[in-house]
């Protein structure tokens, strides 16, 4: 809201005053994995996002896959919840994102609404009809993304000026412009050779984005004019993805089934070339894609490249006794044991403790079930030591079995 008052002719310009709304804006992107499974929720059931901050206020989102209530059972619903105790006025918008990250279907509050205290929420019970959504191309690999844009209103302030100055809108086209520059090949001044592929780029862009490229291209150790650089230890497809990120600040889409391998390789490349944001993106993607097949290799990767969050996510996945046993049967676990012995030593007692907690919760049932079948337990532990498992791993599984039930531990001592 603004009001303008003009006086009579003033030498040198026009006097103006304005009453301006003080606002702070922010966004949160929520990725829904396993959409078809979420439909098993009943009407009015929701899944909440993690908390995030905008303008110093705590917020989170609720996703209702089968509608907010009986009247909206054929719709998908989204709501914004204020997690703090104070009152705040905010305007918000929910938007579906397409594969390129563009907002394609939006619902807007259009005006500020009041959030009074904790757990006060506003949103759209009829955000999008479920049938229309499922027939759209917004859903890919059983997942989709939605972004919530929030503008918090913090009152008004007065300001004055002697000259008219048009408001300069913020630009979001820089990464698109740089991407077009890379694609055009105009002004390139360096060749980057990766195996049998050659990529053309601009030294200044590479150096501005990566301290490693800065040293290689302009530092005291550069080779001659550095018009041609050999890149070793990296596949061309991985380097191409990293180069696209350097210019556009976006990670390109990857073919289905290759997401984990690309995220792992890109994380290594990002760490090598000091691309901190790309490294964080890869770490985040890997945290949500840990499986029994990839847990061990991902844990090694996290340890070698200082990804503490990813390491914690792997340990959390392995907290299940069944998950640990399945992972120990993979080639990745052999790689973990040989390449990171210290990590293997750290993993063992941690998982024994986890199994112990699980055993204490279920120990009564385990004890009753096993008390009458002592020979079967002994035979199972005998097989652990005989069917090709190294003695060390036999001890690990035996320890886990002992932790899972007190009676197991007593028999192992016999």
From TrEMBL:
BP GO annotations = protein ubiquitination
- This one is known as BTB domain-containing protein
Q: Which family does it belong to?
A: Belongs to the Tdpoz family.
A Pfam match = BTB
Which SUPFAM superfamilies does its entry note?
Answer: POZ domain, TRAF domain-like
InterPro entries membership: BACK_BPM_SPOP, BPM1-6, BTB/POZ_dom, MATH/TRAF_dom, SKP1/BTB/POZ_sf, TRAF-like
Return the Basic and acidic residues bias intervals.
Answer: 359-371
Upper taxonomic lineage: Eukaryota, Viridiplantae, Streptophyta, Embryophyta, Tracheophyta
State the superkingdom: Eukaryota
Domain BTB, chain residue ranges per copy:
188-255
Which residues belong to any copy of the MATH domain? 25-150
**Disordered: region residues:** 349-371
Pathways involved: Protein modification; protein ubiquitination
């Amino acid at each position: 809201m603004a009001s303008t008052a003009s006086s009579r002719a003033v030498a040198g310009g026009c006097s103006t005053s304005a009453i301006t709304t003080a606002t702070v804006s922010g966004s949160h992107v929520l990725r829904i994995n396993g959409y078809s499974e979420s439909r098993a929720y009943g009407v009015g059931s929701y899944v909440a996002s993690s908390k995030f901050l905008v303008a110093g206020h705590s917020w989170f989102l609720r996703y209702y896959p089968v509608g907010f209530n009986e009247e909206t059972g054929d719709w998908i619903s989204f709501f914004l919840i204020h997690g703090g105790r104070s009152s705040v006025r905010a305007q918000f918008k929910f938007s579906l994102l397409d594969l390129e990250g563009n907002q394609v279907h939006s619902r807007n509050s259009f005006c500020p609404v009041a959030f009074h205290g904790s757990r006060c929420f506003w949103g759209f019970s009829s955000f999008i009809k479920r049938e229309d959504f499922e027939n759209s191309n917004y859903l890919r690999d059983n997942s989709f993304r939605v972004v919530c844009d929030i503008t918090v209103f913090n009152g008004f302030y007065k300001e004055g000026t002697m000259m008219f100055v048009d408001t300069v809108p913020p630009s979001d086209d820089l990464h698109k412009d740089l991407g077009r520059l890379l694609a055009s090949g105009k002004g390139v001044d360096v060749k980057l050779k990766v195996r049998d592929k050659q990529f053309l780029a601009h030294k200044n862009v590479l150096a501005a984005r990566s301290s490693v490229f800065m040293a290689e291209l302009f530092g005291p150790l550069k080779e001659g004019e550095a018009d041609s650089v050999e890149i070793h230890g990296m596949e061309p497809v991985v380097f191409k993805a990293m180069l696209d990120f350097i210019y556009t600040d976006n990670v390109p889409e990857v073919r289905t089934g290759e997401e984990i391998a690309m995220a792992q390789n890109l994380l290594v490349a990002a760490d090598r070339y000091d691309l901190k944001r790309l490294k964080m993106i890869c770490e985040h993607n890997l945290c949500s894609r840990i499986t029994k097949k990839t847990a061990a290799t991902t844990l090694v990767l996290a340890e070698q490249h200082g990804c503490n969050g990813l390491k914690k996510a792997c340990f959390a996945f392995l907290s299940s006794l069944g998950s640990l046993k399945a992972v120990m049967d993979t080639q990745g676990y052999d790689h973990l044991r040989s390449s990171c012995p210290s990590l293997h030593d750290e993993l063992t007692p941690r998982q024994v403790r986890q199994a112990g907690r699980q055993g204490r919760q279920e120990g009564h049932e385990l004890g009753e079930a096993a008390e009458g079948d002592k020979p079967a337990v002994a035979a199972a532990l005998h097989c652990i030591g005989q069917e090709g498992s190294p003695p060390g791993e036999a001890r690990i599984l035996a320890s886990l079995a002992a932790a899972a039930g007190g009676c197991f531990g007593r028999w192992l001592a016999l």
